[in-house]
Write a structure and sequence with these properties.
The complex is a heterodimer of chains A (114) and B (115).
Chain A: E1 3-6, E2 11-14, E3 19-21, E4 23-26, E5 32-38, E6 44-50, E7 56-59, E8 62-65, E9 75-77, E10 86-93, E11 103-104, E12 108-113
Chain B: E1 5-7, E2 10-13, E3 19-24, E4 31-38, E5 42-50, E6 53-56, E7 65-69, E8 75-79, E9 88-95, E10 105-106, E11 110-114
Parallel strand pairs in B: 2-11
Antiparallel strand pairs in B: 1-3, 3-8, 4-5, 4-9, 5-6, 7-8, 9-10, 9-11
Classes of the chains: A mainly beta (114), B mainly beta (115).
Chain lengths: 114, 115
C-alpha cells in the first residue's frame, strides 16, 4: 500500500540553524509529493509540492527534492526563524490529476528558539 | 476571497448521540475532501466528493459515518451513535480540479469531543 514515514519530533532548533526533516514514502505508481504546514491555531497550508522525479519544490526558503531512487522528499531550510515553529506534514497522492486523496506522514513538530 | 469554512468549530457531545459537521468549500471548487486528525492515528482520509458524488469513501471507519454533498457545494459529515474513539479534529478540504490542479485548501476544522 501507499504510506509516508517522517522523522519523529519534536525538533528544537535555535534561530538561524539549518533544518532537515526527513520523509520517505512507499507508493504504487508515480506519486506526487507535498509538504503541508500547520501553524499553531491555524489550518493546514500547502508549503510546497513536486509532481515528478527530480522536481524541486520551494517556498518561503524551504526546499524539497523528489528523489525516486531513495523514495525520499526531505524538507530543508538554510536558516530557520522563530516564525517557522509549526507542525510539518509530508504527504503523497497517487492520482494527482484525478482528485486523489492525500496520505500523510505522522507530522513533525518544529520549535525554533530565539 | 473566502476560504474553506467549517462549523461548528467545537462540538462536545455525549456518547451515543448523533452529530453533524458542516463544510463550506471555496466557491467553484469541484472536489471536496474530509479528513480526520487524531493523536493516535494522525491525519486520515475519510471521503472524497467530485460534484455531488463520492467516488472514494474508502476511509470511512464504520457505517456510523456518512457524508453528503448537495448542489456541488456544502457538505455534511454525520456521525451516528458517537463513540469516544470518534473524538478528533475533522478537517475539510476543497480543490479546483477543473484547472487540472489538485492543491487542496483546508478549513480550520471541527474539534469533536465525545464524553
Amino acid at each position: 500500500g501507499n504510506s509516508v514515514t517522517q522523522m519523529e519530533g519534536p525538533v528544537t532548533l535555535s534561530e538561524e540553524a539549518f533544518l532537515t526533516i526527513n520523509c520517505t514514502y512507499t507508493a504504487t505508481g508515480y506519486p506526487s509529493l507535498f509538504w503541508y504546514v500547520q501553524y499553531p491555531g491555524e489550518g493546514l497550508q500547502l508549503l510546497l509540492k513536486a509532481t515528478k522525479a527530480d522536481d524541486k519544490g520551494s517556498n518561503k526558503g524551504f526546499e524539497a527534492t523528489y528523489r525516486k531512487e531513495t523514495t525520499s522528499f526531505h524538507l530543508e531550510k538554510g536558516s530557520v526563524q522563530v516564525s517557522d515553529s509549526a507542525v510539518y506534514f509530508c504527504a503523497l497522492t497517487v492520482n494527482y490529476n484525478q482528485g486523489g486523496k492525500l496520505i500523510f506522514g505522522q507530522g513533525t513538530e518544529l520549535s525554533v528558539k530565539p | 476571497g473566502a476560504g474553506v469554512s467549517q462549523s461548528p468549530s467545537n462540538k462536545v457531545t455525549e456518547k451515543g448521540k448523533d452529530v453533524e459537521l458542516r463544510c463550506d468549500p471555496i466557491s467553484g471548487h469541484t472536489a471536496l475532501y474530509w479528513y480526520r486528525q487524531s493523536l493516535g492515528q494522525g491525519l486520515e482520509f475519510l471521503i472524497y466528493f467530485q460534484g455531488n458524488s463520492a467516488p472514494d469513501k474508502s476511509g470511512l471507519p464504520s457505517d456510523r459515518f456518512s457524508a453528503e454533498r448537495t448542489g456541488g457545494s456544502v457538505s455534511t459529515l454525520t456521525i451516528q451513535r458517537t463513540q469516544q474513539e470518534d473524538s478528533a479534529v475533522y478537517l475539510c478540504a476543497s480543490s479546483n480540479l477543473k484547472a487540472g490542479y489538485n492543491e487542496q485548501f483546508f478549513g480550520p476544522g471541527t474539534r469533536l469531543t465525545v464524553l
